[in-house]
Amino acid sequence: MKAQIFGLLVAALATPAFAGGNHAGGHEEALAVGEPGRKANATRTIEVTMKETDDGKMIFTPSTFNVRKGQTVRFAIKNAGELDHEFVLDQEDNIMEHKAVMEKFPEMEHDDPNAIRLAAGESGEIIWKFTNDGTFKIACLVPGHYDAGMHGDVTVAKK
Question: Could you report the per-residue pLDDT of 95-147, keeping only the tens digit for each?
Fold first, then answer.
């Protein structure tokens, strides 16, 4: 059984779904959403809270953001919930591919500069430089969380 699981994991990591990066060594090619930024260059801090609601939803507050192309943003992220949550910033198609893999391998470790996983009560940050305009997604890809409402949009306007 362990050999079968290992084989599935190796096959999943070798698929084109991970052409933009992997969960052990980060992204090898540029992301459309941008690139890791330097904290010293951040011109804005956006505080984001992740939590569950009493009616069973899982949310980001806020869940939509407007930024400018070329802007470096510090996302100060707090997990105010009782469960582990993720903040993943990427293109929608990459989010959906990653979601499918996470459903198969929910304990997968992440080491990507555009994502952070936080246990209940933890805080962290992502410093991000938005290099392209367009609409991108934020999402929690812990199985079931996206479907419970834990996703949103980042609109990057031209300068």
Answer: 999 999 999 988 777 789 999 999 999 999 999 999 999 999 999 999 999 99
Contacts of 45 (CB under 8 A, 6+ apart): 73, 74, 75, 76
Distance of CA 25 to the CA centre of its chain: 16
Q: Which residues of 33-133 form beta strands (DSSP E)?
A: 35-36, 44-52, 58-61, 64-68, 72-79, 85-90, 115-118, 123-129
Backbone phi and psi for residue 155, each to the nearest 5 degrees, phi listed first? -105, 120
Closest CA to 68 of 113, 129, 126: 129
- CA 79, CA 120: separation in Å to the nearest integer? 5
Pairwise CA distance, residues 80 & 40, whole Å: 27
3-state secondary structure of 64: strand
The rounded mean pLDDT for the chain is 85
